[in-house]
Amino acid sequence: MNTASVSLGASVSAQSRLMQLALAALLGFFVMGFVGFSHIEAVHNAAHDYRHSMAFPCH
Amino acid sequence: MTLFRNVVFIAAIAGLVAGVVLACMQAFATYPLIFQAEVFEKTGSGQGPDHAAAAPAANTNAMSSAATAETAMSTAAPAPAESAAPAEEDEGWAPADGFERFAFSVAANIVTGIGFALVLVAVSEFAGGIGNWRQGVFWGLAGFAAFILAPGLGLPPELPAMPAADLTQRQIWWTATVVATAGGLGLLAFRKSLPLALLAVALIVAPHIVGAPQPDSFETAIPEGLHHQFVVAVTLTNLVFWLVLGAVVGVVRGRFTGMATSLRDSFA
User: Fold this and answer.
1) Which domain holds residue A10?
2) What is the pTM of this model?
3) Are B118 and A9 inside 8 Å of each other by CB?
């Protein structure tokens, strides 16, 4: 681990730090999953060209 | 929740920048190929029984697509107006061609860019954080390998109208491959024991031994050359996207912490 001075949340405890980072990663996966993997037709159509261009499994 | 807020802030800036860059590259490199493929999709779907199976899913998007494809269809089929109209209603909403369609693609780029950035920043914080743009480039390379290169080996980028296996199965394989590859790369980079390095290699190789779900038939109306061009375009645009994403995270994070760290030993 880095020294506290270069850490983003210098004062947080280890447990809180783990929780917050996990939460951020989870939010990221959720956003990715919704745009890239959602089976909802309207979402699929809106992001269609993008999904193809990202090699997300599509159709 | 200071840390969470900071991570989201950095990810938002990096995702915005990299997403816009990617959208610009896609507008020139990949979208024209998709539009070309949709013309084949339209004309090809009526040709043989092979395409009939794929037609319901494939047509879903084609209906909503380029005006050129619409005209291609009307010339291909004698009376498409009546048959096309009800099908179009079944497909649900889709953005209109032209600006609206591109605008939604740009939005998807930015939103997903922020999603990728959130994961990148959060994961990298566990390893001490991305201290500067050069470290960011290496993190970006890792992200590219995990999210594009590894899944792309088993499931190459596809154009519309190309045959593919069951969607859910491919999505499961894609996700598992990304997780396994990222885990393997992490072990290789941050653990110094030989057994763990071997485990890392096994993790990276395993999804490809299991094998990606493949379609029953690879027959398609899409020319081989067009598909190859698309695979190259997708891979390279995403490589640049990940390099930019990592580098911007490094720069923004450096500003944020008030001091850019020197290169860590592991990346020297």
Assistant:
1) 4-53
2) 0.80
3) no
